[in-house]
Amino acid sequence: MNIQIFGKSKCFDTKKAERYFKERRIKYQLIDINKYGLSKGEYQSVKNAVGGTAALIDEKSKEYESQYIQYLADKNDVEERLLENPGMFKTPIVRNGKKATIGYQPDIWGEWS
């Protein structure tokens, strides 16, 4: 398994995801999404795995409100803003190759091994 956890340092679910993989001695790579964001390729892979852009957006985040995403009609504008402002992503985003989850999903992660 090649696990990547994209998360925020103050996100409780990100810490729970880390603990899940640590307890099972599964190697993972933790990436601070606020600092490094997602590349376009990573974004496309995650978007395809979770069912679209809407699933990735945290509508409760400060960045979401400040960017007025809800008023953008063009889907490309929404994706562009999301990549420019990674604080809008729901976390943790856990990737394993082409598979991905959003949030704390231990039932799904257990099926990966």
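the 2nd protein, sequnce then structure:
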Amino acid sequence: MVLKPLTYAAGYVSGFFRGFIRGFRGESVVPEPLTYAAAGVDIDAADRATEGIRGLARRTFDEHVLAGIGSFGAAYSLAGKRLAEPVLVSSADGVGTKLKVAFTAREHGTVGQCLVNHCVNDIAVQGAEPLFFLDYFSAGRLDPGVVESVVGGISRACFENGVALIGGETAEMPDIYRDGEYDLAGFIVGAAEHQDLLLGSRVREGSRLIGLASNGLHTNGYSLARKALFEVGGFRVDERRPELGRTVGAELLRVHRSYLKPLRALREADLLQAAAHVTGGGIPDNTPRMLPEGLRARIRGGAWPVPAVFGLIQELGGVEDEEMRRTFNMGLGMIVCVPRDGVGKALEILASIGERAFDVGVVEAGPRGVVYDS
């Protein structure tokens, strides 16, 4: 008796044993037809997810969107923008391991908002008004409900920031991600008048620094935060902590704030010299990015209230002050630079639009960097 070749179809054990028995009996072995779904990619689920996305995206469209979801490429017209010397400003980012908290809490609505607001802030600090946004969502297995929840958050933040969600990619990639997990990235394009770009040239010695309040971690430092809170502290995502006034999960999933409105208000009042989005690297690493050579920022420690979550992380993890400052925003999501004689007016404008803002320091001569007055 001759054993005939066996066919092992896409890792299906039951198919393997059926083929083995048939081969052992001398029967011919006909491979079972493979499908994309059998290989782990469900095109129907992708279609259902995309259909849900279409409506969410359309609510963000304006008259400038010529082609959006469903086209091979999105088209956006600059007609009517009235820019004499337009400059396009772009950025791309993600939300990091904040996603791990969303997976555990099974709460997917806020991470999409975080993604958009983070990207909006990154171009707003250079004086740009956002135009359009594209997203990238990939998972081992697409769950249309999860996709719609994430993209719903993206759509909500796009609408709030006046940004058109005109395209993106939704990919199902088996064997790349664990069950129930996904990755998320965003891409934004904005425009500014060339002469209005904020590139640090307006900053002067003596300029004042105003900090705009964050509402927590935003999208940075989550690997350290998760280790301190979940591994060392042993907290659960649904555990309510009195010092936080909410559950740990709700605290960590708070939406990364958009600062487009306060930056726009200061710019329109001709008070905005420069701005720094406080993300990874904290105040020490981000503030110098808005300063020219030969100038540094002197920050007054204690000039603003630090949210309780940072103290909890530091206490549980025994994290040193310098490490905290370089990992987290410590309560300031944005630092803006205004003229020395304009700080009072700037604070008045910010208060009038409900912005919590603090006079936190000054620009002085010295090697570009940040020094703290404790």
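The longest helix spans residues 144-161. Residues 1-24 have pLDDT under 50 and may be disordered.
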